[in-house]
Amino acid sequence: xxxxxxxxxxxxxxxxxxxxxxxxxxxxxxxxxxxxxxxxxxxxxxxxxxxxxxxxxxxxxxxxxxxxxxxxxxxxxxxxxxxxxxxxxxxxxxxxxxxxxxxxxxxxxxxxxxxxxxxxxxxxxxxxxxxxxxxxxxxxxxxxx
Length: 145
Ligand code: FES
Prior knowledge:
The chain is of the alpha+beta class and 145 residues long. It has helices spanning 6-13, 61-74, 79-94, 102-144, and strands at 26-31, 38-46, 49-58.
């Protein structure tokens, strides 16, 4: 059995941020092809800051512990800071994880990236839609005058 640090064991035994956000701004589902484990990550964003990050995992202890750590650390971060945080944590965590468990953290980091990507895509669509509505109302105004 892989040997984990005390820090990782604490997050595995008492994981933080487990569960679903009912109305997430970004959500992702990823699968580790080598083991078949599945991870879902949810984020809530307000003013470009992550106010809440949660996860659901059908995965190993390493995936659960690193999800707990990542979701804790990205709370309060801007979107860009969260992506940087993910990189920073990966350096920190990878030194603590047994080599064979590194793909488990990659799964978690990818889940966060995809949830953020989904948030950005939704936001982009809203901006385009909102922009179109403004354009339409302006155009209607011009036609009425
Ligand atoms: S063994 Fe599947 S995510 Fe860790």
